[in-house]
Design a protein that fits this description.
Layout lengths: L14 E7 L6 H13 L6 E7 L5 H12 L7 E6 L18 E6 L4 E5 L12 E7 L9 H4 L1 H9 L6 E4 L13 E4 L5 E6 H6 L7 E6 L2 E8 L10 E5 L8 E6 L9 H4 L9 E5 L4
Parallel strand pairs: 1-2, 1-3, 3-5, 11-12
Antiparallel strand pairs: 4-5, 4-6, 6-7, 8-9, 9-13, 10-11, 10-14, 12-13
Helix pairs in contact: 1-4
């Protein structure tokens, strides 16, 4: 489409910018940050911004989504902006609203990630990082740094201006992803965990085996399956799910026909990201 009054230029292969933030879906915070990004980008029309909301203060969810998007196929340039900074290591008041700054990672598939340096933000992509750098963004001075400071640095990287990168860092310093934690709950109430299929294999748990799953103070019987729909309705399936690629993450899938029924998330009392779980064989009496 030609540019002109009342027309919009169509970019055939725009840069894909994923925003993964712990704000309410379609909330004001997203709107303000997107606006600042548009004012900072050299050519905002050449950037397609997509928003994904994670639960508040949930760094493992930000890391999980970053890994799922960043390690997948992309036919175009992709930049991921992750943001969750719970400041759990700061019990006292913080001068000038000081918090953690931004860090940058380039992956071996050329995907670029700019994220707040929070606990698990880079953990799910750690093994694929080929360049890991600090970003010269202020760590203090505003309660809403995500709006007031971060967009200009994210926009600079999207624009190809890497002068905002500073110290080179060692990816080995990034915290590993612990096994047997809740990572993400999808919109159907299925609970994705940091248990890998290889963990089930190493525990000699095979399809058809009965297990006990303990999570969030609740214990339920389940079945190791090769898919959530391969067990009868109302049976808890413990199966390699749709996330995690070569070694999929295990999810807890309770098949329901209506969302008014008790999903896995409901049965386990809506566990937060990072909540530990146990999966053990159900021994016959």
């Amino acid at each position: 489409m030609a540019e002109g009054s009342g027309t919009i230029a169509v970019v055939n292969n725009p840069t894909l910018l994923h925003m993964i933030c712990d704000y309410a879906p379609d909330g004001l915070e997203f709107a303000e940050i997107v606006t600042r990004l548009h004012t900072s980008l050299t050519d905002p029309g050449s950037v397609l911004i997509r928003q994904t909301a994670t639960p508040p203060l949930d760094t493992i969810s930000v890391g999980f989504v970053t890994g799922q998007l960043g390690l997948g196929p992309s036919p175009q340039r992709m930049v991921i902006f992750g943001n969750a900074a719970p400041r759990r290591d700061q019990e006292e008041m913080s001068a000038e609203n000081r918090g953690r700054g931004l860090r940058y990672a380039k992956l071996d598939n050329d995907v670029e990630v700019v994220s707040v340096d929070s606990q698990y933000a880079f953990s799910f992509i750690k093994d694929r990082i080929v360049e890991y750098r600090d970003v010269a963004s202020p760590a203090a001075g505003s309660q809403f740094r995500s709006r007031d400071y971060f967009p200009r640095y994210v926009a600079a990287i999207v624009d190809g201006d890497y002068s905002v990168l500073t110290d080179r860092l060692d990816p080995n310093s990034i915290e590993e992803v612990p096994s047997h934690l809740v990572a993400w709950t999808d919109g159907f109430g299925n609970i994705k965990t940091t248990v890998r299929k290889s963990h089930l294999d190493s525990a000699d748990l095979a399809v058809g085996d009965r297990v006990l799953v303990t999570l969030n103070g609740v214990t339920l019987a389940g079945v190791i399956s090769d898919g959530g729909f391969t067990v009868p309705r109302g049976v808890l399936a413990v199966n390699a799910g749709s996330s995690g690629y070569d070694d999929p993450f295990v999810e807890l899938f309770l098949r329901v026909h209506h969302m008014s029924e008790k999903t896995a998330a409901v049965r386990f009392d809506h566990p937060e990201g990072g909540t530990p779980l146990e999966i053990e064989p159900l021994r016959s009496l």
